[in-house]
């Protein structure tokens, strides 16, 4: 049985969304229930085994979704300015998320997550559409 990977974008986007949601839910586990910190990152931040599992799911799902979006860019039918704006918004979101870990601006992660979330919520449904060709 032959399966064309490009023929099922909706299924792939659904799987990536499930991986991302599972990773976020694991990362939401309270620090007191995670166990010991394995790798200290900065004051108040550290990576436990539970965090590593959540981050791995999030990284796999996010990277897979990014690959799907890039591969289907010609089919998204977005004008260049919209693509630039979404890319800028997503980049700003990721930058703020990373900066919040390494700086004293703890609540910047919420702004970064919201910016990245908006870009994903716009691009994921467009990527999941089947192409007419």
3D structure, described in words:
- Keywords: Membrane, Transmembrane, Transmembrane helix.
- The chain crosses the membrane at residues 12-32, 52-70, 82-102, 108-128.
- This is Major facilitator superfamily (MFS) profile domain-containing protein.
- With 133 residues, the chain is mainly alpha-helical.
- The chain contains 5 helices and 2 strands.
- 68% of the residues lie in helices and 8% in strands.
- The chain starts with 8 loop residues before the first helix and ends in a 5-residue tail after the last helix.
- It has helices spanning 9-27, 49-71, 73-76, 80-102, 108-128, and strands at residues 37-42, 45-48.
- A two-stranded antiparallel ribbon has the order 1-2.
- The protein has one domain (5-128).
- Helix 1 runs antiparallel to helix 2 and helix 1 (9-27) runs antiparallel to helix 5.
């Amino acid at each position: 049985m032959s399966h064309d990977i490009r023929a099922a974008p909706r299924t792939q986007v659904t799987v990536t969304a499930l991986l991302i949601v599972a990773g976020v839910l694991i990362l939401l586990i309270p620090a007191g229930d995670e166990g010991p910190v394995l790798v200290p990152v900065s004051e108040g931040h550290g990576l436990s085994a539970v965090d590593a599992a959540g981050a791995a799911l999030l990284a796999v799902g996010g990277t897979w979704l990014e690959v799907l979006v890039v591969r289907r860019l010609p089919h998204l039918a977005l004008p260049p300015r919209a693509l630039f704006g979404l890319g800028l918004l997503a980049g700003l979101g990721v930058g703020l998320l990373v900066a919040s870990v390494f700086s004293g601006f703890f609540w910047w992660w919420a702004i970064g997550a919201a910016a990245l979330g908006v870009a994903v919520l716009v691009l994921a449904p467009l990527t999941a559409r089947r192409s007419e060709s």
